[in-house]
Design a protein that fits this description.
Number of strands: 3
Strand order of the largest sheet: 2-1-3
Radius of gyration: 22 Å
Number of helices: 12
Order of helices and strands: HEHHEHHHHEHHHHH
Distance between the termini: 73 Å
Strand content: under 5%
Largest sheet: 3 strands, mixed
Shape: globular
Length: 312
């Protein structure tokens, strides 16, 4: 009853995470440029894979899926952040805010799942090089991708399902975009229960996928040790790109977890910087890693540049 007496009707939220930031215009320009480069690079990866039939293989379908996840990840929050910093639009309507929350956390969960599935793909390729194509066909790869999207949506659906029934006592978001923690803090409910619930789900997803990836690489190392020198180089080259991408994604997550557990208190600006970096960083690095480290995609890009130069 006290919730109903003190609650307010919220039609839009005020984004308050940038209240103390210095030089918002400069920060906004940097984020805008990073966002545009990351989105364009991921789109180029997707177009290259779709247009070239020779790249219609399980590994490249998984790279394409990762590029879609990265675009979703950056596009869920970057336009809002850029709008606040460059245009001064510091409000967001209720429904778009919930949609942003859902898409942001869906991208985070899908990034873990995508990297885990890619680790499984590399394990199969190294362990069963001759049977690999018959074990993991394009159809099975697509079905696996659809399945992980459905599972990810099921996990993330818990968030709007728990937020929607709650009355709101504030319309100001503490952080720089609509994530679950920021919206829960605007409600009249005690956030402890909801934070604990999401922490358990996040812990399960984070460590399950990370342990799965680590075990996959453990078995890959075992197979590499038993292989010849030429096979070792080939296997190392095959797995290195994925390994770099895994480090780029999981390192910021573990840094945040370790800092929180150690009781390190970050200022709001420092926390916002860490959050923005953990979203934009992997989405910017991933497409360039796969373009530069994957022979077929590198060759395709060189061919395009060659045609452009000859036509000029």
């Amino acid at each position: 009853m006290s919730f109903q007496n003190s609650s307010i009707e919220v039609t839009e939220f005020l984004i308050g995470g940038f209240d103390t930031i210095g030089r918002p215009m400069g920060v906004g320009v940097v984020i805008l440029i990073t966002y545009l480069i990351a989105t364009l690079a991921n789109i180029v990866n997707i177009v290259l894979i779709i247009c070239d039939k020779r790249l219609h293989k399980p590994m490249y379908l998984l790279i394409c899926n990762l590029a879609v996840v990265d675009i979703l990840n950056t596009s869920s929050t970057s336009p809002t952040i850029i709008g606040v910093l460059l245009v001064g639009v510091n409000t967001i309507s209720y429904v778009p805010c919930l949609m942003q929350m859902f898409s942001l956390h869906l991208a985070a969960v899908m990034e873990m799942f995508a990297l885990a599935v890619m680790a499984f793909d590399r394990l199969l390729a190294v362990s069963y090089p001759f049977q690999y194509q018959s074990y993991l066909t394009n159809v099975r790869t697509l079905l696996l991708i659809y399945l992980v999207w459905i599972v990810a949506c099921s996990f993330v659906a818990v968030m709007p399902a728990t937020v929607l029934p709650l009355p709101h006592c504030s319309s100001k978001l503490k952080y720089i975009y609509c994530d679950y923690a920021a919206i829960i803090r605007t409600t009249c409910a005690d956030p402890t229960y909801y934070f604990n619930m999401i922490s358990i789900i996040s812990f399960f997803l984070l460590f399950f996928t990370f342990i799965f990836i680590c075990l996959s690489y453990f078995w890959i190392i075992v197979f590499v040790k038993l292989s010849s020198n030429s096979d070792k180089r080939k296997m190392g080259s095959t797995c290195l790109s994925h390994f770099i991408v895994v480090i780029c994604y999981y390192c910021p997550l573990f840094i945040r977890i370790i800092l929180t557990r150690l009781g390190v208190v970050l200022s709001l600006d420092e926390w916002n910087g860490l959050m923005i970096g953990s979203i934009l960083g992997p989405s910017l690095v991933n497409p360039f890693i796969y373009c530069l480290r994957t022979k077929e995609m590198r060759y395709k890009i060189f061919q395009i540049f060659k045609k452009v130069q000859t036509s000029q």
